Each structure stands twice: as structure tokens, then as C-alpha cells.
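User: HTH araC/xylS-type domain-containing protein. Structure?
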Amino acid sequence: MMNEGVRPTDEQWAAIETNDKTYNERFLYGVHSTKICCKPSCPSRLPHREKVCIFHSLEEAMAQGFRPCKRCRPENVILPNDEWVALINAFLETHYMYDVTLDKLAARFHGSKFHLSRIYKEMTGETLTQHITQLRLTEAKRLLNNTTLRIHEIAARVGFHSSAYFVAVFKQYEQQTPKQYQLKARNKR
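Assistant: Predicted structure:
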């Protein structure tokens, strides 16, 4: 089992909460849910205290599987763009069905939304919205092929808040409605 690191003291937590740059040379903190480590002065969203651990060096954090923050750049080390995009894609593979926004991704992956959007498109050739839509539609097609769920149930399950919007997006990408797709799939069986 991987060492979970040292929990922050009240003083360290106060430095993280207030983004106190005077503590930058004293410690770094890692966030277990994102596996990213930051300086205490990092302007990124405040993590939950129970998900934070303290490190005395970037090497110590990296040895435990943490990566440097893109925003505050601990010890001026930057996570390579391809690794950053891979982390984002891994997250999206398991969270596409939720309300995933550019703002939420930027906060979670410690970068500005404009930088994240630009780098993602440069590295993958598609926008984040296009990628999330493809993930949702792939799962929708799987559900249409393999279940008896209704269209509105599938729409909700894959992250569309409106079945009408789901039908419109599906038709735009697949040149047929979800119902037409489902009927063709059933006829092939």
C-alpha cells in the first residue's frame, strides 16, 4: 500500500487556505484525488483537508506518484502537456456522465481554462466538448445495442440533461435518431 503522506498541521492548513507564499519554501502539499502537488500559495481551488498530504520536496511527492501543478509550478517543474492531457482523459473516461465543465476541469487539474482548452486541442486535435460528446455517444450506442432502457433513461445515464438535446446531438453525429439506431441494432440480431 502506498504511503498516504503526512497530514497537514493546523499551521500548514492555514497557509494553504490563505495561499500564504511565505510557506512556499517550507513544504508542498499533494491532493490525493488529483495526484497533483502544489505550493501553499497556489491559487487553485481549495481541496478538502482530508485529501491533502504534506511533502518536504517535489522529489518526495513525485516518488509517491504526484505530479507538479501546472498553475503554481513547484520548484519550477512543469508537468508535460502529454501527461496532463492523459490525466484529463483518464478522468473523463470515468466522469463523462456528470456535469463536466471547462471551469471544473481547470480547477481540478490546476490550470487556467483557456490554457487547458488550448493545450487539449493542440495535443488531441479535438475540443474537450467534442471528446466528452464522443464518450457519451459511445456509451449511448452501447446501451442502445445491449439494453432495453428507454431513450430518456439512456440520455440521463450518459450525461445529457435533456432527452431532446440528446436526440439532436445523436442525430448530428450519427445521421439518425437514437430510436432509429436502436431499431437497426435490434434487427441485426
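The radius of gyration is 21 Å. The beta strands are 28-31, 36-38, 52-55, 67-68.
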